[in-house]
Amino acid sequence: MSSATKIGFIGAGNMAEALIKGLLRNKGENAEVSAFDPDEKRLYFLEQNYGIRSAESSAGLVKACDIIFLAVKPQICITVLKEISGRFSGDKLLLSIMAGISTSMIEGHFPEPPRLIRAMPNTPALIGEGATALCPGSSAQQADMATATGLFSAIGPVFEIQETQMDAVTGLSGSGPAYVFSFIEALADGGVLNGLPRQIARELAVQTVLGAAMLVKQSSEHPALLRDMVCSPGGTTIAGIKALEANSFRNAVMEAVAAATRRSRELGKN
């Protein structure tokens, strides 16, 4: 990325904050970051905590910046696209993190298709442990993908996929942290139900999930084999696994991913 690249965010929510935090941590003075959001209190928070600049409008931000992150709710994307489409030129790169909104839908609101990359990061980006999937629009070049990969690498690993796979990514990793949070809560509640103090149960649940995830990441073994290593014949763990299976645990998780994937597709159609 060239010196003092001007990066702008339309939308200043949690994901925008995570990206801003990662960019400033990795790029430092090589990036000038600004943002626009109708919520002035939110902009003030980002100004005070990260030293970014506030823009007076989305159109003004686009005019002033080289790389623009489109980080608004998909329900208002058409309004925002109408505001900014006339300000785009061939030297600007647009990065969309809107769930369910295809590159073709975005491109259809511009006189000429912009250099566009669609991305789906997730909320662990707030601590630099996110996962992001990327796919290019019709006018994006390989250099644009390389730029996007470099930017999103500031918040965690990046995966290049086909756009037809993006809704499934949304259902799995985009929504996935919420499933894991629910599991951690339930795991801790199970400890409390069986006599553990709340705080100890919570900390044990968090560390258990963290440790298990790291073991899967660092091991060459399939997760099923790692699970089998814990299941002694006639032991406690296999009794717990039987209870999970009896309550359709695996099916519930797969259905959650499928439901979120369907909703992502619905957002794109609407």
Which tags fit this structure?
270 residues, alpha/beta, Rossmann fold, ProC C-terminal domain-like fold, 2 domains, 13% strand
What does this structure look like?
The chain has 270 residues and is an alpha/beta fold. The protein folds into 2 domains: 5-163, Rossmann fold (3-Layer(aba) Sandwich); 176-269, Orthogonal Bundle (ProC C-terminal domain-like fold). The protein has 12 helices and 8 strands. The chain has helices at residues 14-27, 40-50, 58-64, 77-84, 103-107, 142-152, 166-174, 176-193, 198-218, 223-230, 236-246, 249-269, and strands spanning 5-10, 31-36, 53-54, 67-70, 93-96, 115-120, 132-136, 158-160. Strands 3-2-1-4-5-6-7-8 form an 8-stranded mixed β-sheet, with helices on both faces. α1 (14-27) links the parallel β1 (5-10) and β2. α7 (166-174) packs across α12 and α8 (176-193) packs across α9 (198-218). The longest helix is centred in the C-terminal third of the chain and has 21 residues, at 198-218. The model has no long low-confidence stretch (mean pLDDT 92).
How many H/I helical runs?
12
Could you give the distance between the termini? 36 Å
| Widest β-sheet, arrangement of strands | 3-2-1-4-5-6-7-8
Determine and state the CATH class of the largest domain. Answer: Alpha Beta
CATH superfamily of the largest domain: NAD(P)-binding Rossmann-like Domain
Instruction: Name the shape in a single word.
Output: elongated
Percent in helix: 40-55%
Architecture per CATH nomenclature, i.e. the level-2 architecture of the largest domain: 3-Layer(aba) Sandwich
